[in-house]
Amino acid sequence: RAALEFTGVSKVFDTGTTALSGVDLSVAPGEFVAVVGPSGCGKSTLLRLASGLDRVTDGTLEVAADTTSFVFQDPTLLPWRSALGNVALVGQLRGVGKKERTARAADALALVGLTDFAKSFPRQLSGGMRMRVSLARALVADPQLALFDEPFGALDEITRLGMQTELQRLFQLRGFAGLFITHSVSEAVYLSTRVVVMTGRPGRIAADIAVPFAHPRS
Ligand code: ADP
Ligand code: ADP
Fold it and tell me: Complex ipTM, two decimals?
């Protein structure tokens, strides 16, 4: 069964803009799908629908995964909470007991190499480190489906290369299904198992290409 399945999906906003038209897209468990295309072609709309932040106008959308997490370009961390506190908040909101959510948050921070910075506050961390905290927060609940809206778009190139390697490793380790937007074709090919190319006016899928030399997934 697909982790995520769009069938004939259209999205028309109140303004009359048709952001998506007749989109068919299926993401199988263990697949990591990159979405590329020019600004305004409907990439964010596609992701917002997948995340449940917005509703389809027409067609059907099925999300088999019961846990979905979303990583934005600008990691919105709570400034008054430590790195550990930010990651543990996910468990707190789900009613997980303090001891367990703290232990899980510590594990997630270890996964992204931030054990030594667990007690640091966001302002004390670099942009790359904040992005790592955001990744730890996204993965702490062990999502079956992870959505990324240009996660590394705001990072400098060296940090971005490090984070791409990091995400690649996490993806192989955890095996979640993923859908991510990127403006970088090389990032799409490096990280994904499939690249979906969109065009605009109205937004639709123009090509759906398997990456021939994708890294093997567990
Ligand atoms: P992309 O992420 O590829 O840049 P978007 O999904 O943000 O594209 O936007 C697709 C189209 O839908 C654009 O024409 C955009 O202006 C329009 N759009 C996006 N969100 C809204 C909204 N909330 N209300 C009206 N129009 C929107
Ligand atoms: P990007 O191109 O990086 O995806 P956008 O500027 O298209 O970013 O969109 C940023 C936010 O503004 C999104 O949440 C989108 O839904 C919203 N948005 C985009 N276009 C419009 C619009 N024409 N009217 C209302 N909201 C919009």
Answer: 0.69
